[in-house]
Amino acid sequence: MRAANGKTRRAAGFTLIEIAIVVVIIGLLLGGILKGQEMVSNARVHHLMDQGAATRAAILGFSDRFHALPGDYALATRNIPGARVNGDGNGRVGGDPDVASQDGGRARATEIAAVWEHLSKAGFLTGAYDGNPAGVAGPWSCAPGTCLVNAFNGGLVLAHDRQHYHADPGNPANYKGGIARNQLTTGPFVPVEVMAELDRKGDDGDPAHGFLLIGHAYLATPEGGPRQCAAAAPGARMVEYWNLLSRNSDCGGVYLF
Predict the structure, then answer these.
(1) 18 inside domain
(2) Would you say 164 and 237 are in contact if contact means Cβ atoms under 8 Å apart?
(3) Which of 122, 181, 182, 188 could share a disulfide with 154, CB 3.0–4.6 Å?
(4) Predicted TM-score (pTM) above 0.85
C-alpha cells in the first residue's frame, strides 16, 4: 500500500512467522505449567507414601520397644520422658469404637491424641504434639499440633476402628466398615488422583484390597447414588477402582496393621 507521499506503508498485523513464534511460546509456557503441576502432584504422592511408611515403621518400632502401642501404653509417664498421659494397655488405641469412654471413664479421644505425643517423646517421630483430646473430633478429623498432618493439612489418626472399606459378605452392595482393628488413616483432604497413585505405587492400586483401603467414609453416598472416591463397573456389586472422573478433592485411605 502506498501513502500520499508515494512511500510504501506496511499493512498492520502480524506475519505468519510472528504468529508461529507466539504460538510456540504459548505452547512452551503451557507445557511448563502442566509439567510443574505434574511435578507438584508427584511430590505430594511421594510425600504421602514416605510419610505412611515412616509412620507405620515408627508405630511398629514403638511397639517393639515398649510392647504396647503408642497412645495405649499404660506406663508412658514412667518410661517416656515428658509423656503426660498413660493409656489403659488393653491393646486397642482408643478402646471400643462403639462407645465414647473406656475403663475408668477415659475418653476415647484421650488415647488417640496421646499417640503422637508418645511417638515424639520416645524419639520415633519429630515434631511437638500436645496430646490434647480436644483436638480429636473423629476418625477423620484431628487438629495439627495434636496429630501428625499430611501434605494437605489433614490429621492422621491411629485408632482401634473400622474405618476401612468392607463389603457385607451377606450383601456386597451394603458397604460398611470391617471388623474393628488398630489402623492408621492417611488423613482427609487427599485428591482422588493422588490417592489412586499412592495406592498404585505403595500397594496394589485396588481401593478394596491390600493393606491400603479406601476409607469407608469416602464412599459416603446414599445407597443407589453415585459413588465418590471409588467406583465399580456397571452391574458390579463391589468397589473396584478409584473414581478419577469424580475429581473429588477430599478422599482418604486406611492402612491396616
Answers:
(1) no
(2) no
(3) 188
(4) no
